[in-house]
Specification:
Guanylin; 85 residues; single chain; mainly alpha; Guanylin_sf; guanylate cyclase activator activity; 5 helices; 0% strand
Length: 85
């Protein structure tokens, strides 16, 4: 979840994989590659297409990617789980 936007955990994990796979190797690559957007990926889960239309899409994708990096078990990361942590 990011603000009022909610996404399935599996989709967020896929987003993180896409973003990690396109991480530049060096600062020079950033200059050559320009601004990377997961919206350019053909395998981006459909749930994120509405995010791509927003001006704050890059920040939303970054926060979701960071959330997927947490070492919480999937049950505790699920909003439906009560009593975890």
């Amino acid at each position: 979840q990011d603000g009022d936007l909610k996404f399935p955990l599996e989709s967020v994990k896929k987003l993180k994989e896409l973003m990690d796979g396109n991480r530049p190797i060096s600062p020079r690559m950033v200059a050559l590659k320009g601004g990377y957007s997961p919206c350019e990926e053909k395998f981006l889960p459909e749930e994120f297409q509405t995010v791509c239309k927003r001006q704050d899409a890059a920040m939303i994708f970054q926060r979701l990617s960071l959330a997927a990096a947490d070492d919480l078990c999937e049950l505790c990361a699920n909003a439906a789980c009560a009593g975890c942590l």
